[in-house]
Amino acid sequence: MTFLLGIDIGTTATKGVVLDSARGLVAEAERPAVLHADRPGWAEEEVGEWWTNVVSLSRELADGREIAAIGVSGMVPTVILHDADGRPVRRSIQQNDARAGVEIEELRGRLAGARILERTGSSITQQSVAPTLMWLQSHEPEAWARTQTVAGSYDTIVRMLTGERSIEANWALESGLFDLETHDWAPDVLDAAGLDIELLPPIRRPEEVVGVLTEAAAAETGLRAGTPVVAGSADHVGSAFAAGLVREGDLLVKLGGAGDILLTTAEPIIDGRLYLDHHLVPGLYLPNGCMATSGSFIRWFQATLAGGASLDRLDEEAAAVAPGAGGVVALPYMLGEKTPIHDPDARGAFIGLTLATERGHLFRAVLEGIAFGFRHHLDVFAELGQTPHRVRVTNGGARSRLWKQITADVIGLPLETLRSHPGSALAAAFVAGLGVGVLTSWGEIERFVEVGETIEPREHDGYERPYRTFRALYPALKEVIH
After folding, report:
1. How many angstroms separate the CA atoms of 181 and 156, rounded?
2. Which pLDDT belongs to residue 173?
């Protein structure tokens, strides 16, 4: 038996698994994490809380087992500033943070004509790292003066485990600072943002061993000093891999705090409405979209408009309402929106309210609005000539039969569920195993994926009119919202 530890730094929780390379998962656990939104459009987290969770999870999950290697996955492209000693300078700035709207426009102006989309795989948007760093330079000069390294969520934990600086390849790609044509950092983008290339660590493949567990980290985590630690994985990329997306045409819908949709392709698909990632499997790609709020929209509704009612109760009320939510349509742009509209100033809305509208109508409209957002992305894929052949659904929302059924109905495709899906923590453990030679091929992931029930679409035609209304709302409201 060879044990591999996988840790995932998530928005609402830090998760961990132990993978037996022969038998599969033998232990799982998680600890909560708090998202701070001190101002409209802001999204931050405490790196110290992540580390406390990693220490606690490592001690619980190891439980006398000899861990052969460690992998870490996490949110991307979350931004963390490190000082000269590798300590976080301030809270993280999350991937769905929308504070840098002015800087986005400024950078677009500076780089006009530089073929940014073609070269980096993405436009300059809310997701881009450079505008966030420009905001920090302008608004927090004292923190910026102490900054010696910029890294992502999982890169930061890898450094705290090993003392080594690194950036995993997908953080580099999603950052907008990396040039696909030269396979290196883009000097003109760095210059336009006022960034020194020395701020950016070496780029590593996910399975590449970055370093080994330090004596200090071993003392805290209870793990063996000298244990190899690999570069790890972006959470959504790892989650797709751990869901069994290994063939061209495989699609994953993630019903998480944010809403991710990822398609496996054999060639890079570059379009300004989407993001582009490397697949974990070399030679494949993952063009994808991310809706800034999905499950977090539901949690907001539960806490703010539903008085803390249970999600089961809200599902019951929404299930009693016919498709179309009695004419109510919700825009889920509660933190601005990332793909496919890339508008940090977009806002959420309910349209179609009457005196007959009840809580069940509103909650169903929330679920339908999120599903409409996923369908919008499928329309983009179709325009680009990409058709999914197999669709799987994961994350916390996959526990809701109603949400899954609404999603299947809206997109008009069967959804394959997974009986157990530990998400990107499994992928992190898997790449750790590849890094030290315990696992020898990417295809071995199939041994650890168990497919469950398939949700067939039943009401697709009934959603055509509400979906058309959804697509018309943002263009109609954009000027007023702004």
Report:
1. 27
2. 94
Average pLDDT over residues 449-469: 95
DSSP string, 369-422: HHHHHHHHHHHHHHHTT---SEEEEESGGGG-HHHHHHHHHHHTS-EEEES---
Compute the average pLDDT of residues 432-443: 96
| pLDDT value of residue 396 | 76
Can you give the pLDDT at residue 384?
97
Question: Virtual CA dihedral for 80, 240, 372, 98, nearest 10 degrees?
Answer: 10
| Distance between CA atoms of residues 239 and 254, nearest Å | 9
pLDDT at 11: 85
- Phi and psi angles of residue 155, each rounded to the nearest 5 degrees, phi first: -60, -35
At residue 426 the predicted structure's pLDDT band, cuts being 50, 70 and 90, is very high
- Among candidates 261, 217, 212, which has minimal Cα distance to 236? 261
| Percentages (nearest 5) of helix, strand, coil residues in the chain | 40, 25, 40
226: confidence class by pLDDT, cuts 50, 70, 90: very high
In whole angstroms, what separates CA 383 from the centre of its chain?
A: 24
Q: Are 351 and 329 in contact (CB under 8 A)?
A: yes
For 221, list phi and psi in degrees, rounded to 5: -85, -15
pLDDT score of 285: 95
Mean pLDDT of the chain: 95
Candidates 3.40.50.1580, 3.20.20.70, 3.30.420.40, 3.55.40.20; correct CATH number of 244-420+450-482? 3.30.420.40
Report residue 50 as tokens.
């992540």
The answer to whether 94 and 80 are in contact (CB under 8 A) is: no
Tokens 């780089």 sit on residue: 111
CATH superfamily of this structure's domain 3-236: ATPase, nucleotide binding domain (3.30.420.40)
* Domain locations along the chain: 3-236, 244-420+450-482
Mention every residue, 6+ apart, whose C-beta is less than 8 A from residue 50: 9, 14, 33, 153, 156, 157
| Element containing residue 359 per DSSP (H, E) | helix 359-383
